[in-house]
Design brief:
Layout: H1 2-28, H2 47-54, E1 60-64, H3 72-91, E2 95-99, H4 109-118, E3 124-130, E4 133-139, E5 142-147, E6 150-155, H5 165-174, H6 176-188, E7 194-199, H7 210-216, E8 221-226, H8 234-241, E9 246-250, H9 258-269, E10 273-277, E11 281-282, H10 285-288, E12 294-299, H11 305-311, E13 313-315, E14 319-322, E15 325-335, E16 338-352, E17 367-368, E18 375-377, E19 383-389, E20 394-397, E21 401-404, E22 424-434, E23 452-461, E24 471-472, E25 475-476, E26 481-482, E27 487-488, H12 491-503, H13 523-528, H14 530-560
């Protein structure tokens, strides 16, 4: 009798649980909620991201090539990417993603790798050590988003030179949301903003800014705007420039006239953003490679000092010499009939790692400068943020000054740099700028002249070569890539972030400020306590399960044996 009653109660409880599950499932069809229980809220999407993915009204396909047999570090990157895309898909079912191994089939392996190289998605060949054993794997840390007839590639792994694989993965995870959100925004929205590349004062030739223009064109309209017509038609030139949203001034070598300055000044007063890349000193690597291997570095007069002074900075006609420098290759002798090349640290080419928390540069890889000058910050009502600075072990060299390739052999001591480093080389300025022609006679008559502007932004970089890509047999290479040392620097990402920040109305760039806390695995401790770790992770669960099974069986027999 007792057995029947217990059985009846058990069936009742089972029916109640079954009905409850049905009710919960029905309710879940009308209400949706995901809970992010991580301490850093890494899976909580920003409002900007939600707005971007919320506007996708037809299938958007994301292919992630991070699949295959690879080390644990990349497994973590794979899992974090998958978790993020699941969040995207949960908020908008039109976002469809899948993971695939592009070189899974051995017969098409070489062909696929060539295809990826052509698309600019280079694979990584990495060596991983595990308990004394080394293995080599090919990894494709890339994804591609496709929407209608547009597509965009997403780099999943950040290139941090000198960093361990674990550190690269952590930095990369922090940028995942921004990378995917930026790509989706790029392919799902029509171009609106217009960028003018200023010409007419000896700026860089088109071939040397080709990769910057190519990358920028994916999201914005961009074209050349010459100031040559200012001398004859200044008013018309100004009106034409006002139609643009951003002016890029890339390494001018000839002085600006007062009329040209007025055109740029009034462009700024009317809300136009500006990205300045200026050389305060006449010195570059191309002129240094001559028979003598030496040049005389001279101040470069661009007639912009008073203008920038009014805005709140001063470009000092000095050169920065930095112990933390990028390498150059020089001939060191002959071996047989072949010239031997050796790498030397070139102290006039600072290798700058950002330390600012500004979203433009936060957690960014190192950036290569060449013959940079310090920027002096002046006091006025404009907010100034130093984006990039030279290292602690840097100092200035006055001009005129002889510069020789033989300087690579110079020996220095830390005392030479004490209290002289941390020199600003890139500054963001935000606020209401005053015209440099306020209360002054105008170079040309302008009925629309504004003495003060509206809220605006500009970025000043004290090196024009930051935007310059190298050429290989006349073909532009990727911006930031040094063909002599095969190093890829963060110049391209830095400049694209500058452009996005200046033109970003929806706050997309701010996603880069997100902090993700991923603790690193101490492999040495794991190896040291490997047997204990195995016992805890494998043996202990089995013991607990056995004890539970024994107790359950014992109690059940005791209950129903009465």
């Amino acid at each position: 009798m007792v057995m029947k009653e217990n059985k009846s109660n058990a069936l009742k409880q089972l029916r109640i649980v079954f009905l409850a599950l049905i009710v919960i499932n029905l309710i879940s069809n009308f209400f949706f909620k995901r809970f992010d229980l991580t301490q850093d809220k890494r899976y909580t999407l920003s409002a900007t991201t939600l707005n971007i993915i919320g506007e996708i009204d037809s299938p958007l396909y994301i292919e992630v090539y991070l699949e295959g047999n690879f080390p644990s570090e990349f497994k973590r990157l794979q899992n974090e990417t998958k978790q993020l895309l699941e969040e995207f898909s949960a908020y908008n079912s039109n976002i469809i993603f899948n993971f695939k191994n592009p070189i899974e089939k051995e017969e098409t392996r070489v062909e696929k790798m060539k295809e990826f190289y052509t698309k600019g998605m280079q694979p990584l060949s990495i060596t991983v050590e595990d308990k004394g054993k080394q293995s080599q794997e090919v990894v494709f840390p890339w994804a591609q988003a496709t929407y209608a007839d547009k597509s965009a590639k997403i780099a999943l792994l950040k290139n941090l030179m000198g960093a361990s694989t674990e550190q690269k993965v952590i930095s990369s995870v922090q940028h995942l949301e921004f990378g995917f959100a930026e790509a989706i925004n790029k392919i799902s929205k029509e171009k609106q903003k217009k960028i003018a590349v200023i010409k007419g004062n000896g700026e860089l030739q088109d071939a040397f800014i080709a990769d910057f223009v190519k990358s920028t064109r994916e999201s914005y309209y961009i074209g050349t705007f010459t100031l040559d017509s200012v001398s004859k038609q200044p008013t018309q030139t100004l009106q034409a420039l006002k139609k643009y949203d951003l002016a890029v001034i890339a390494k001018p070598t000839e002085a600006f006239t007062e009329a040209e300055k007025q055109v740029v000044d009034q462009f700024i007063m009317n809300g136009g953003k500006t990205l300045w890349l200026l050389d305060a000193v006449n010195a570059d690597m191309d002129s240094l490679y001559n028979e003598s291997g030496a040049i005389l570095a001279m101040p470069r007069e661009l007639n912009l000092t008073d203008m920038l002074f009014k805005y709140g900075i001063r470009m000092q006609p000095l050169l920065i010499k930095d112990e933390y420098a990028t390498p150059i290759k020089l001939a060191s002798g002959n071996e047989g009939s072949e010239t031997q090349m050796q790498e030397y640290a070139w102290k006039f080419s600072p290798f700058i790692y950002p330390t600012s928390t500004n979203p433009i540069v936060k957690n960014m890889e190192g950036i290569k400068f060449e013959f940079a000058s310090p920027i002096e910050i002046l006091k006025n009502d404009i907010k100034k943020t130093v984006l990039l600075s030279s290292s602690e072990y840097s100092k200035t060299v006055g001009t005129p000054s002889p510069i020789s390739l033989e300087m690579v052999t110079e020996e220095t001591t830390p005392e030479e740099y004490e209290g002289k480093g941390l020199l600003p080389v890139a500054v963001l300025m935000e606020g209401k700028f005053n015209s440099m022609y306020k209360n002054r006679v105008l170079p040309f008559k302008d009925n629309t002249f504004q003495a003060s502007g509206k809220d605006n932004k500009m970025i000043v970089i004290s090196d024009g070569d930051v935007i310059k890509n190298q050429l290989d047999k006349g073909v532009p290479l990727e911006l930031g890539f040094d063909k002599w040392t095969n190093q890829l620097y963060g110049n391209k990402d830095f400049l694209m972030n500058c452009v996005n920040y200046l033109l970003d109305d929806n706050g997309l760039i701010n996603i880069r400020s997100k902090d993700v806390d991923l603790p690193l695995l101490n492999k040495e401790e794991v190896y040291k306590n490997y047997s204990l770790a195995q016992l805890i992770t494998v043996g202990l669960p089995i013991v607990i399960l056995a004890i539970f099974g024994f107790l359950f069986t014992y109690l059940r027999k005791r209950k129903y044996s009465k």
